[in-house]
Write a structure and sequence with these properties.
Blueprint: E1 7-18, E2 30-33, E3 39-46, H1 54-61, E4 65-74, E5 79-88
Antiparallel strand pairs: 1-2, 1-3, 4-5
InterPro entries: AIG2-like_dom, GGCT-like_sf
Domain Gamma-glutamylcyclotransferase AIG2-like: 15-88
Protein name: Gamma-glutamylcyclotransferase
């Protein structure tokens, strides 16, 4: 997040949390969005600088993740907002079992 001014706020998303992806995402936690899942705590970063940095953030996250929109519950503000999150791509999701 270097080079960006912004604020961090505790929030929640509905997703399945994996302690590690597979392939290039191995060793790094990840989520798969699922509106029926239990809430997962996250930190919501808000910054007017983000549009200028999406390219380098996408590159940093790499091919194991994709940037997708998500509904984020912000309890302190008592609201839900749309934000972006890096979700595991299907090939990086661990097999069930």
């Amino acid at each position: 997040m270097e080079g960006m001014d912004g604020t961090w706020t505790p929030a929640l998303i509905r997703a399945r949390l994996y302690p590690s992806g597979v392939g290039r995402a191995e060793g790094y936690p990840g989520v798969v969005l699922d509106p029926a899942a239990d809430p997962v705590p996250v930190q919501l970063f808000a910054s007017a600088d983000l549009p200028d940095h999406w390219g380098r953030l996408d590159e940093f996250e790499g091919p194991g993740y994709r940037r997708v929109p998500v509904q984020v519950e912000v309890p302190v503000e008592e609201e839900t907002v749309t934000a972006w999150i890096y979700e595991l791509v299907p090939e990086a999701v661990p097999a069930e079992g």
